[in-house]
Design goal:
88% of the residues lie in helices and 0% in strands. It is mainly α.
Length: 123
Amino acid sequence: MAATVGSWRFIILQSFLIVAWIIWNTLTGPHAWDPYPFILLNLVLSFQAAYTAPAIMMSQNRQAEIDRLHANSDYEVNVKAELEIELLHQKIDLLREQEIRDLSMAIRSLTEQLQTQSRAAHG
């Protein structure tokens, strides 16, 4: 409803109908079915306003509820993603610690080999 009433197409169509109504009732003179000051046109526009405003508000309320549901869904997805990222960080930290231990052991082993070779060469 809000998309229809709030569109340029609706505004142009309604403006055209109002201008046509006024011109028709002005040109037909005393035989006009809604002579100046166009009381029937005023009544029609008042009815339109009376029904359009609540309909637009109901549409906005529905859209607000949909937006809330989407926001809750996004929040849940973000929380799950955050937990998964935290777990990945922990796994990376464990792998890094293991790699550091392995490299330290390799360095110690190479150092011992170099010391052994150095002693054997100078020996």
